[in-house]
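Re: that backbone. Tokens:
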């Protein structure tokens, strides 16, 4: 549930290789766009495009502009939630950096700049993913000396208090501590709980609030900081005239302006409820807002803004401030609608025993969106999908919105051009060219077919227990959905439906799938370990099975060149037939609940790793120096005014770099 963050552990499937915007022929435009903005430590910062912004109406563009202003206005709240010294340290480091007039090539200055880039990326002094404190690569003497040279108004009064927080590795070492057996609140450096509050006190406090018979409970603690007053636990609520009042007031101000440009009454109602929630801090009102939001599926423009995900709280209660403004990608959503609309044809023609097919099949239509602004916990590190709201009872009673941010995935994909991955692992220039041209579109179609049809296809024979495959159930279910997608990706039907413009395009996804399943996904496995994760097991199961069954006809080979292993596909037509054959067998196993056959497939093909090949993949990958974590700078939106000073339109530009953007945000959106 919730937002799935694209941590992209170095070469996650689907994003390992490059393309040129698929079949749309806009490669020239893409080549002019510089996706990579900055590279430091374990981070690469990218830029994303907002295709289609120009095709919106001026009203929609102005609406997005004010929603974007509301989004960034909450920035300081996340910094403060992440640690109570974060804003003071940010001020200090930014001021020293900006005022610095010494040699730029000194180790101290370079260390300071690196530290600045790291804390701006993490919205605080702890790594955004590991939550470990950054260790500065500049000296304390250097910082003290430079701070002393600042004008009085910029020199921090509490420098002595800040220095150990910055330099002493034992002070506030981890933002979120999850180690069993310790007081998770006392040992976590986040600022969701005041100093002196213990885990036992907080748990007792919430136990007293929660009514276990309530079928529609509010999300307790979502928008509060826990403190102690006169020895008693109190909640400090994020609201107007409460905690973070200045930030929240600025958000409300911009939401109110946005409301005048909303597309319809329903959307206006969503914003009105959000404003009411920010004014009162009422969690009941937040639930009303969430229901109104999830039920608004017709508006073109959409956004989230609030305290959403609770990964930053070791007890999983308080939400981190976050906002994403977006609009529906009509072309890509058309793709998923066409697939869902033809669900019956795909089911009737699948290579499985007709006894195991569904008589009636309803495809699931997923929405594809274009992100327009990323803020708070989504900036700079960004999710590639959204699945909200988080409250279970709202999801059950009112549904959830599940969307993918295709302009973000496209930016990842484009930026991977030239990272050396294809040159290292793909067998020849011809295949690299094929991937460049068709991997992005076929990868997206693979996901669409997997999600919209694959999981929805097939049926169990009467009386078969849906959990008959037990521990292997999720691996085999992913296998089934992937095979359904792979099989149809090569079908002329996709060209007929206008989803692909070249009958050979599927070969790009076939090659990537086999390369990943046989070799490159191993870079995510520690030496000596088995494959455990269900999606990774599924991919190796498929790849190894078709490899083995194709051996008599030499369908796929592993060839050695200069001591390096390469995947070579000799017969794509036979490969497709093998995918179809395995799909038939997996569907039989599922429909009949044949646990023994399912277990045999998983044990024989999905789990074990060839240690020699594994070692080779790890060595080759480590030499590529690909950043494990990626994030984004935002585009810049500029309002256009008429002679009377009324806003008439908004333009977008993509020229701002990473440090200039975060320094500008700190200045222009300073609220706390
Ligand atoms: Zn799946």
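Recovered sequence:
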């Amino acid at each position: 549930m919730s937002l799935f963050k694209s941590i992209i552990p170095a070469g996650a499937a689907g994003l390992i290789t490059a393309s040129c915007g698929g079949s749309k022929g806009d490669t020239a435009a893409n080549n002019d766009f510089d996706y990579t903005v900055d590279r430091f430590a374990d981070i690469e910062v990218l830029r994303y495009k907002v295709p289609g912004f120009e095709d919106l109406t001026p009203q929609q563009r102005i609406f997005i502009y004010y929603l974007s202003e509301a989004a960034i206005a909450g920035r300081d709240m996340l910094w403060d939630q992440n640690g109570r010294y974060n804003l003071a340290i940010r001020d200090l480091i930014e001021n020293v950096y900006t005022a610095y007039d010494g040699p730029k090539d000194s180790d101290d200055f370079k260390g300071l700049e690196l530290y600045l880039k790291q804390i701006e990326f993490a919205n605080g002094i702890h790594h955004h993913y590991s939550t470990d404190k950054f260790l500065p690569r500049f000296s304390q003497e250097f910082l003290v000396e430079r701070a002393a040279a600042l004008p009085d108004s910029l020199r921090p009064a509490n420098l002595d208090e800040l220095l150990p927080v910055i330099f002493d590795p034992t002070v506030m070492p981890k933002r979120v501590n999850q180690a069993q057996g310790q007081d998770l609140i006392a040992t976590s450096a986040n600022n969701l709980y005041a100093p002196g509050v213990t885990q036992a006190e907080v748990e007792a406090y919430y136990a007293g609030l929660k009514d276990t018979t309530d079928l529609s409970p509010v999300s307790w603690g979502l928008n509060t900081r826990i403190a102690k007053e006169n020895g008693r636990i109190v909640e400090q609520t994020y609201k107007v005239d409460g905690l973070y009042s200045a930030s929240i007031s600025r958000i409300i101000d911009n939401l109110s302006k946005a409301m005048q440009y909303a597309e319809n009454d329903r959307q206006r109602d969503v914003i009105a409820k959000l404003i009411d929630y920010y004014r009162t801090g009422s969690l009941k009102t937040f639930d009303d807002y969430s229901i109104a939001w999830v039920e608004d599926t017709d508006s073109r423009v959409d956004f989230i803004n609030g305290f959403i995900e609770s990964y930053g709280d070791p007890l999983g209660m308080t939400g981190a401030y976050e906002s994403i403004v977006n609009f529906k990608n009509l072309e890509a959503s058309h793709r998923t609608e066409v697939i869902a609309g033809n669900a019956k044809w795909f089911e009737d023609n699948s290579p499985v025993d007709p006894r195991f097919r569904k008589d009636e099949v309803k495809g699931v239509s997923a929405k594809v969106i274009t992100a327009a602004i990323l803020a708070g916990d989504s900036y700079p590190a960004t999710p590639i999908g959204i699945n909200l709201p988080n409250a279970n009872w709202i999801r059950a009673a009112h549904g959830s919105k599940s969307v993918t941010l295709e302009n973000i995935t496209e930016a990842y994909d484009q930026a991977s051009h030239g990272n050396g991955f294809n040159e290292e692992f793909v067998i020849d220039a011809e295949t690299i060219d094929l991937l460049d041209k068709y991997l992005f579109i076929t990868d997206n179609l693979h996901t669409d077919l997997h999600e919209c049809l694959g999981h929805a296809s097939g049926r169990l024979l009467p009386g078969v227990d849906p959990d008959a495959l037990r521990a292997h159930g999720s691996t085999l279910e992913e296998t089934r959905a992937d095979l359904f997608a792979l099989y149809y990706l090569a079908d002329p039907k996709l060209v007929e439906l206008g989803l692909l413009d070249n009958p050979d395009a599927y070969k790009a996804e076939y090659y990537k799938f086999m390369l990943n399943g046989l070799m490159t996904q191993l870079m995510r496995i520690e030496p000596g370990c088995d494959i455990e994760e269900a999606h990774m097991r599924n991919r190796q199961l498929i790849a190894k099975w078709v490899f083995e069954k194709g051996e008599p006809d030499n369908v796929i080979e592993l060839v050695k060149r200069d001591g390096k292993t390469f995947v070579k596909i000799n017969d794509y037509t036979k490969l497709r037939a093998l995918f179809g054959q395995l799909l038939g067998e997996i569907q039989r196993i599922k429909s009949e609940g044949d646990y023994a056959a399912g277990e045999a497939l998983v044990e024989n093909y999905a789990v074990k790793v060839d240690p020699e090949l594994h070692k080779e993949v790890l060595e080759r990958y480590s030499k590529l120096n690909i950043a494990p974590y990626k994030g984004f700078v935002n585009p810049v939106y500029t309002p256009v005014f008429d002679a009377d000073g009324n806003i008439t339109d908004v333009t977008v530009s993509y020229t701002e770099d990473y440090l200039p953007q975060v320094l500008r945000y700190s200045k222009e959106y300073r609220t706390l």
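The chain has a mean pLDDT of 92. The chain is about 45% helix and 15% strand.
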